Amino acid sequence: MAEPLAIHLLGPQPHVVRAEHRQPAPRGRKVWALLAYLLITESAPSREWLAQLLFCDANDPLNALSWNLTQLRRLLGHGSNIAGDPIVLRLPHGTFVDVHALTAGTWMQAIDVPGLGRDLLEGKTFSACPGFDVWLLASRRRLAGAAESVLREAARAKVSAGDGARAAELASRLVTANPLDEDAQELLIRAYVASGDRPAAEIQRDACIALFRHELGTDPGVGVLQAAEPEHQRALPHRRPARTATVAQLEAGTGALDAGAVDAAISLLRQAVADAHDLNDGPLQVQSLVALGSALVHSVRGRDGEGAGVLHEAIGVADRIGAPESAAQAHRELGYVELLRGRYDRAQRWLGNAAKLAGEESTERAWALAVQGVVSTDVGRYNDALNAFNEALGLAQARRLGQVETWVWTFTGRVHLLRQDLEEARKCLTEGLACARAVRWTAFVPLPEALLADVDLAEGRVDAASTAYEHAHALALQLGDPCWEGCAGRGLGLVAAHRGDTTTALRWITEARHRCVRLPDAYLWVEAYCLDALCTLAIEQRCVDAAQWIDDLEALATRTGMRELVARAYAHRGKLGDRAAGAAARVLAAEVDNPALRRLE
Fold it and tell me: Residue 260: its pLDDT value, please?
């Protein structure tokens, strides 16, 4: 039996513990750099690649790599194996790795990581290895984002469990780190309400309003403005509930939602939740909470924070009554919320849970896989994305799930578009647009239409692209969907650029970048997509704002883990004359399975 092994890389003193004994530190910093890279990178690096990445300053890089690998084997002990070319690191079963607990563990596991909130290899720099230094910076920012996500998830779980004091403590850390994070502010206010301290909630709400007006010139969204209001005050006047009446209330709420009467639906679903709670009917509570949480997430813009709290409560009830599978949809919806905000590690965990709880042949599994595919795409795991989409499509076609099929065709088309496989992209996006119209999913139409216009533009069909972008943009405006407005507005800017109108092009794309995130529950990948186009155009036109936009893209992409867009940000910087950034872009691109990205110059 292998001795227990724990690897701690977060904070200023990385260390390894074997059999409960802290091991002597290895000679030199590069053993830690080598270990961090092997544990975090998702590609199996060749010996030559590692030698050039970490030991390019040595007289014999390959020999220096071999010496450091020997030191690393000694540090990890006989139960571990580091071998091959490409090099693969295998650790004993049950090994604790703090960065893995942070990114892939439950919030309960992650919140107890000793280095939570500390930097990866804190204080260590590798200026002689600029490619690795950039990789380390990007990894630090992504792990910092992961730590924030864990605090957020833990705070929401504590609110739903009624532990408002602990929730307020966790949410306060988020607000302190970023006072302009609207979601964190809302969460802190809700935590105060959950703790019974409504005056503190109102003080926090008022302070947030004053801060936003001073810093941003606007009020925070409705989620913050209403967060101090106790939930029970939003339900209808209390009356003695009956189960049949509560079921009817739930059905009426979902029916009103399907008919587009959102306010009425929310009111009915709130009452169903209150009545199910009074009845102490666990299964009905779960149903009502999931219906209300999903409605808040999808139908009321800016209410994802409240919706997430309701969904956490649904999961808690399902666990309490011993029927966790009844909350599969709640897990999936929470994964969707995390996807929108670029918290991809937490999204993957929720969606993985949803797929497991849903079983092998179900609508819920199809949706969980379909959303998982989008998460994998956003972080540059395109092969994983296609595998998830293929399974979801099979389930959708077998069960005639028109919306799932629409989603899968559209986002599969996006994968092929990003890989510059235009023929496959056109085929998938044409299917996606046709499916959206066939099932009358009008709210989704602008996305496949705008992405299909991207294909037209890439193939030189500028007039066709322009017509499609214009329709997608007009429809998105009618729907009030900022994300799809961003995709279509970006495209209109690119059309203007193709026609030689640079001023109009920059105006369109700049506006698209800002409009797509005007609500707190916006899909952050769209902003990054707009920024990437803005950087490309600005560099071509020698625009003075190019450097700032590149910085913005890098900051957003590194914090969220959009790996392809991190690489593209450094490639943009390389085009401005920064040779080290150009070299770093190739290091970062190596972790993304996109052949088109390997051609970065």
Answer: 85
What are phi and psi for residue 290, nearest 5 degrees? -65, -40
pLDDT band at 360 (very low <50, low <70, confident <90, very high): confident
- Give me the mean pLDDT over the 19-46 stretch: 93
Strand duo 81-83 + 15-18: pairing? unpaired
Residue whose entry in the numeric block shows the structure tokens 């009321």: 300
Question: Any idea how long the chain is?
Answer: 601
> Within a 10 A sphere around the Cβ of 101, how many other Cβ atoms?
21
In 3-state terms, what secondary structure has residue 533? helix
* The two structure tokens encoding residue 413: 């088309």
Distance CA 512, CA 499 (A): 19
* Cβ-based neighbour number of residue 582 at 10 Å: 18
- Token pair, residue 358, equals 């849903």
Most distant pair of Cα atoms in the chain: their distance: 82
CB-side exposure of 567: number of CA atoms within 13 Å?
Answer: 20
User: Which phi and psi angles does 6 have, rounded to 5°?
Assistant: -135, 135
Residues 283-334 pLDDT 10s: 999 999 999 999 999 987 778 889 999 999 999 999 999 999 999 999 999 9
Count of other CB atoms within 10 angstroms of residue 93? 9
The candidate with the shortest Cα–Cα distance to 264, out of 253, 272, 275, 273, is: 253
pLDDT at residue number 2? 61
DSSP labels for 143-204? HHHHHHHHHHHHHHHHHHTT-HHHHHHHHHHHHHH-TT-HHHHHHHHHHHHHTT-HHHHHHH
Which of 278, 357, 343 minimizes the C-alpha distance to 304?
Answer: 343
Find out whether 594 and 380 touch, Cβ atoms under 8 Å: yes
The amino acid present at 324, given as its one-letter code, is P
Classified as helix, coil or strand, 555 is helix
- The residue assigned the tokens 């960065």 is 99
* CA pair distance 22, 7, nearest whole angstrom: 10
DSSP annotation string for 37-74:
HHHH-SS---HHHHHHHHHTTSSSHHHHHHHHHHHHHH
How far apart are alpha carbons 69 and 89 in whole angstroms?
11
Alpha carbon separation from 539 to 223, 292, 321, 548, 550 (Å, rounded): 39, 47, 58, 11, 10
Exposed/middle/buried for residue 541 (C-beta within 10 Å: 0-12, 13-18, 19+): middle
> In this structure, what is the dihedral angle of CA atoms 274, 278, 281, 287, given to the nearest 10 degrees?
0
Whether a cis peptide bond, with omega within 30° of 0, leads into 61 is: no
User: Which residues are CB-neighbours of 289 under 8 A, at least 6 positions away?
Assistant: 273, 276, 310, 311, 313, 314, 317, 330
d(CA 561, CA 144): 11
Contact 313, 285 (CB under 8 A): no
Write out the DSSP string of 433-470.
HHHHHHTT-GGGTHHHHHHHHHHHHHTT-HHHHHHHHH
φ, ψ at 17 (rounded to 5°): -115, 125
Q: Span 163-188, mean pLDDT? A: 95
Name every residue whose Cβ is closer than 8 Å to that of residue 325 and which is 6 or more positions away in sequence: 318, 357, 358, 359
**502 close to 463: Cβ distance less than 8 angstroms:** no
